[in-house]
Amino acid sequence: MTAVLFTCAGQRVDIVSAFGRAGAFTVAADVDPLAPALYHADARALVPRIDDPGYIPALAELVRLHDVRLIVPLTDLDHLQLLRGRERLGTRVLLAEEDVIEAVNDKYRAHELFVARGIPSPPTWLPDALPDELPYPVLVKAREGFGSRHIYRAETPEQLRFFLDYTTVPSMVQQVCAGEEFSIDVFCDFEGRCLNAIPRTMIESKGGESIKGMTIRDAGLIEHGRLVAETLGLRGPANIQCFRVGSELQVTDINPRFGGAFPLPTAAGSNYPELAIALANGERPEPRLGDFREGILMTRFFSHVVLEQGADGLEPLDERSRPVAVKKR
Description:
four-stranded antiparallel sheet, 18 strands, alpha+beta, Rossmann fold, D-amino Acid Aminotransferase, Chain A, domain 1
């Protein structure tokens, strides 16, 4: 079996489980012993914090121990550490090159990159370089981070001044897009070829993460996803967020990892875990743009893992073995 190591596994039970169903031997790593995804993997390990000098050596030991063929980061937090530690890790990392990752992790630098590569993006400014006439409404957005934290909508110059003073993180100002928002889940090989691009609607989001959506077969969005991915040289999975403004598709964000709505393209037949495993084994899958099921809907809900202390640490509790109270009639 092909061993795949997931870093910052956290709550991404959906991703770890999907790779397991695709035939991978899954290894999940996290700093938190209560990270749910640890208990859905074939093997699990607690590792130091990503800013600890022992983080990369701990992952390298897991690579050696389990003969890991591929490392898949599940958040944005450790991308640069993984890229800079590739030689010590001794296996492939499913990420784009360092300059692209550095750019897309900073939303203002991402905007500059989009414009430089000919990819439409909404007008965006730094707070100390605002034009005299701003096209309100605008957003004050954190340059770094995820989960829609530190984003504020300003309708007037007074509100803009307030929010720029109120925010506690380095920010930028971006014109609000008036069109409909879409997400495109893409997957590229190590040569930068886009193997598939699956657009979906954004029916409802919470905390910046899609919880309801539907796959759509839109030729313009599929081609735009391919174009953006290959123009930027993305590798592996990415989530491209864009708005259709008139006849133009404006890109606002790119997350170079599996998106929060991963279960939706998976249910639509993306086969992204299978493609990742093929890349890990040195194969060269052919692009299959447009090969997915449209009209697939997703609505997400909370679930849980119940644990108990075992001889070797925390272990999942088999709730089915618990006695069930019999109701009296």
